[in-house]
Specification:
5-stranded antiparallel sheet; alpha+beta; 5 strands; globular
Length: about 170
């Protein structure tokens, strides 16, 4: 199966409820069929590759990346340190931080993703999931980037927070 990244768009009141009781996040996510969750974005296994082609750094070196792009995978706020969403706790962006991230992402051209894409280097750096030599790998990343950009745009337009987690 592998490790996948998911994002959830929510309003401030819902974020406040989740911060107060993080179990509500899991209850909400698992009580509705996946196909009915238009507020959820699943970027699959592209998360580490996207971080690399967007920032120029592997996620293992995320400390070298400045906010807001640093927040692509792990938001700056931890929802509940004790809650494990699969591969650690969920993190989140406030509505203001979501807008900051969107402003940084919206100016990134697909060509810059292509320019940073280097299958050999990504594999050497251990960028997950180690399939970057596949002829469709770059197209996969570009398509997932478009989905992420559109998701952040809607979240910004609706003044929403974004929760992210690996599972």
């Amino acid at each position: 199966m592998g490790i996948i990244q998911q994002y959830v768009r929510i309003d401030q009141d819902t974020l406040d409820r989740y911060v107060e009781n993080s179990q509500l996040l899991q209850d909400d996510l698992f009580s509705t069929p996946h196909s009915e969750k238009n507020y959820l974005l699943d970027i699959g296994k592209s998360w580490d590759g996207l971080f690399y082609v967007i920032t120029g750094e592997p996620l293992t070196n995320h400390k070298a990346v400045t906010p807001p792009l640093k927040w692509l995978i792990y938001g700056p706020n931890i929802l509940d340190l004790e809650q494990d969403m699969g591969y650690g706790p969920a993190t989140y962006l406030t509505p203001t931080q979501t807008q900051e991230l969107f402003e940084a992402v919206k100016v990134i051209a697909e060509q810059s993703l292509s320019d940073r894409f280097d299958a050999n280097k990504m594999n050497e750096e251990g960028v997950y999931p180690d399939f970057w030599e596949d002829p469709e790998a770059l197209n996969y990343l570009i398509e997932e980037f478009k989905k992420l950009k559109a998701f952040l745009q809607v979240a910004t337009q609706e003044n929403q927070a974004v929760i992210s987690f690996l599972c």
